[in-house]
Design brief:
Number of domains: 4
Radius of gyration: 27 Å
Largest sheet: 2 strands, antiparallel
Number of helices: 5
Structural class: alpha+beta
Strand order of the largest sheet: 1-2
Number of strands: 28
Length: about 350
């Protein structure tokens, strides 16, 4: 008898559920969906909740009488409480500039703009190694130099990856340089990733690189030196803080650097980060011109304008003309990307 009662109760519950879906629900949650399907695409701010499975509203756009409606707000904090990658725009919660709602299965949050997304400066920074390539007629999110596109994901380059003498593809590989056509470890470094060669005294390292020393049991560049990320030399080169003379030639391989009286320092559009210089991030030219009138914002970084360059003798972008200026500007931008990767 109890079994029959249980069956009746179960059937009743099933019938009530069907009525609820087919009659009571008329809004977004009345739409059934399937994993990998596209049933929720026509409903703004929704996604497929596969466990149910019905369309549901994104976190920043709660269900209001069957409609996904962006939360009304006055402060960013009200939106961030719902989604860390959102903000308050014109009184409503929206994703921040580098994020969007993709409507993917079980994705209620704002996600980072992927490779190939149309962009404006600053709108691709949600994912490491991405920049908005505004050198194109139609700017899109793209992998920065030093990264490779692997299934639409920017992956940092590694030892052995292909490079060119002027391409700076090895700039995100610590203690590495471009050796002929592949990223390789500096003279005093080995392995993947590149780590200092084993040593017992500094003499062991100096035989590999005159500007290295033994720290603990591993070789390292001596104070204020680093494997040059400009050019194709695997030796440790003068960096920020290294001694220099009036000619400034000692700082030539420090990207974005120059000789400030007696020590290598960073140009106005750069900032020192340990022994290297990092470019200033930007979303508009104004950020850069406030630092140097002859600079601009390219791929989310301040660089010298075409026809100008940081020549290693001045803190400002100087007129040089030709390809050298362009090459130097690109180098400055890539240096910043290296710093960003090392800090993650």
């Amino acid at each position: 008898m109890n079994y029959v009662i249980d069956v009746i109760i179960s059937l009743r519950a099933t019938l009530l559920t069907l009525v609820y879906f087919l009659v009571a629900r008329t809004g977004v949650d009345a739409v059934t969906c399937s994993a990998g399907g596209n049933e929720c695409a026509s409903t703004a701010y929704s996604y497929c909740k596969t466990l149910t499975p019905i369309c549901a509203c994104a976190d920043i756009a709660p269900d209001a009488s069957g409609t996904c409606t962006p939360k009304v707000c006055t402060l960013d904090s009200e939106c961030i409480a719902l989604d860390a990658n959102s903000k308050c725009t014109s009184g409503s919660c929206t994703c921040t500039d580098s994020y969007y709602l993709d409507g993917a299965d079980d994705e209620a949050s704002c996600v980072a703009n992927p490779v190939g997304t149309t962009c404006a400066l600053g709108e691709c920074s949600g994912l490491t190694g991405q920049v908005c390539d505004n050198t194109l007629d139609s700017p899109v999110c793209a992998c920065a130099d030093g990264f490779k596109d692997v299934s639409s994901t920017c992956t940092v380059n590694a030892v052995g990856d292909t490079c060119t003498a002027s391409g700076y593809e090895c700039m995100t590989v610590s203690n590495a340089f471009c050796s002929t056509s592949a990223c390789a470890c500096g003279a005093a470094f080995t392995g993947d990733p590149c780590v200092g060669a084993t040593c017992s005294t500094s003499a062991d390292c100096i035989t590999l690189d005159a500007n290295s020393e033994c720290v603990g049991t591993a070789c390292a560049c001596k104070a204020n030196y680093a494997v040059s990320l400009k050019g194709t030399s695997g030796d440790c080169q003068p960096g920020v803080g290294a001694t220099c003379t009036a000619s400034g030639s000692e700082c030539q391989n420090l990207l974005g650097g120059y000789c400030a009286t007696t020590v290598c320092a960073c140009a106005d559009i750069m900032a020192a980060s340990v022994t290297v210089c990092a470019a200033t991030s930007c979303t508009a030219d104004a950020t850069c011109t406030a630092l140097d009138a002859n600079s601009e914002c390219i791929k989310d970084m301040c660089v010298c304008k075409s026809g100008y360059a940081l020549d290693g003798t001045s803190k400002s972008c100087v007129a040089t003309g030709g390809s050298n200026a362009i090459t130097a500007s690109i180098a400055v931008m890539l240096m910043s990307l290296l710093v960003s990767v090392l800090q993650h």
